Amino acid sequence: MLKVDNQRCDLCGLCVSVCPVNALEMFEKYVEVDQGKCTACTKCTRICPVRALSLNEERGQDA
Amino acid sequence: MLKDSYDIAIVGGGPAGLNAAINCADDNISVALFEKDREIGVPVRCAEGTSEEALEKYAFVDQDAICSTFNRFKFVAPDKKFVEMESNSMRGFVLDRKKFERSMARKAAEKGVQIFTRAHVRRAQDKGKPVVKVNYAGQDHTVQAGLVIAADGIESRIARDFGIDTTLSMRDTDACYQMTLTNIDVPEDTVQFWFSEQIAPGGYVWIFPKGSKTANVGLGINGLYSEEKLAVDMLEEFVKENFPETTMVNSAAGGVAAASSLKQLVNDNFIVIGDAAHMTNALTGGGIASALAAGKMAGEQAREAILAGDTSQSMLKGFEKEWHRTIGKDYRRMYRLKEAMLKINDQDFNKLAEKFENTPPEEVKISKLMTTMLKRKPSLIIDVTKVFAGL
């Protein structure tokens, strides 16, 4: 499951730009994850300049 | 007051959206601009440098928004040897983006544009029609529009509503972090680029002086390497080592689309511009000039379409063609050079700096630097030659 650490997140929007399934959306003060769409592909966790996103092992399909 | 319908709805209040607004509004055309943040001009996620030529050509320049003027470029190799280049035809400004965008907003307002901040557009299309669903002042509103211009930045989702895929590949994305440092001792007329695989793999460090012993210092790491190297950590390390006496007054994460601009920029009732359309110079990461240019072109096109009562894709194609014939073409070349640069290693950069170390800055040319750098990669020389020959 993808998690956003709102303390670390700087709201730059990069994660949204690389998400291939439109699972992330930027709001004024946070990034929202649509867990139903997320495929745990790890692109967002790899691109984030401040490592604010992480995946835990509970669920991960077609990675 | 938010109305129920507008001729043109613009999503995003950065340089692209604001310049589109300025260029499409008048007494006969109603325009609304929606900005998700609470203020126009902030937060600044940008090195703030742009070319004098582009500013004068595409936008209204508020002199108050210019922090410094540069015509010198310093390229620092991993071993700290460097090449300096001076060019009066490549003069540029470092802007105060907040002041710059505020002055653009003022100009847009004078033309009758209604600007809404804290206005988050969730969707802009309903059953093929341009319908803006916006959360403004804590309430959901539905606004009809004749045409939508998406200028909502790298995190854009609006274009996806209109069937245009804006997803960036990792290879075409740079993860960035920038600090505004004060008490920094760097010449005001020089922008600096430092290269090092250790610090900024696939990218570089930039230093853009803002005057008063202040500068934007940032770095970008290509998406292929951003998992091992974290931009924020690398920048902290760089500053500690090279500018230990400075103090940070601002910092921000950010991203650059090191891509070639999107091929499809229009659909029925829809135009996408700026970072949202990946209109960034892939080699330099610069995007202000292209945002302003696209804003102007798109604004004029939108205006023409509304006045003609035809906002179909074939009508709006005029803008797409104009973009790809002009800046889009230049940016496709820059993309090829970026691809070439990804193959250059630290040793290549060191050799290059060594070779040009004693050349006077006014005799150093970008084309010469590039061809020399790629000498040991003969397959790439053709690309560089094509870029500078304008092919």
Give a written overview of the molecule.
The complex is a heterodimer of chains A (63) and B (391). Chain A has 63 residues and is α+β, with helices and mostly antiparallel strands. Chain A has one domain (2-55): Alpha-Beta Plaits (2-Layer Sandwich), CATH 3.30.70.20. Chain A is built from 2 helices and 4 strands. In chain A, the strands form 2 sheets. Chain A has a two-stranded antiparallel sheet. In chain A, strands 2-3 form a two-stranded antiparallel sheet. In chain A, a hairpin with a 4-residue loop joins strand 2 (24-26) and strand 3 (31-33). The longest helix of chain A is centred in the first third of the chain and has 5 residues, at 14-18. With 391 residues, chain B is α/β, with parallel strands linked by helices. Chain B has 3 domains: 5-46 and 97-168 and 259-325, FAD/NAD(P)-binding domain; 62-95 and 170-257, D-Amino Acid Oxidase, Chain A, domain 2 (2-Layer Sandwich); 337-389, no CATH class. In chain B, the strands form 3 sheets. In chain B, strands 1, 2, 8, 9, 10, 11, 17 and 18 form an 8-stranded mixed beta sheet that branches. A 7-stranded mixed beta sheet of chain B has the order 6-5-13-14-15-12-16, with helices on both faces. In chain B, strands 3-7-4 form a 3-stranded antiparallel beta sheet. Chain B starts with a strand and ends with a helix. The A-B interface holds A 10-14, 16-20, 22, 25-28, 43, 45-51 and B 36-38, 43, 45, 118, 120, 153-157, 160, 166-170, 173, 175-177, 221, 223, 226-227, 230-232, 252-255, 257.
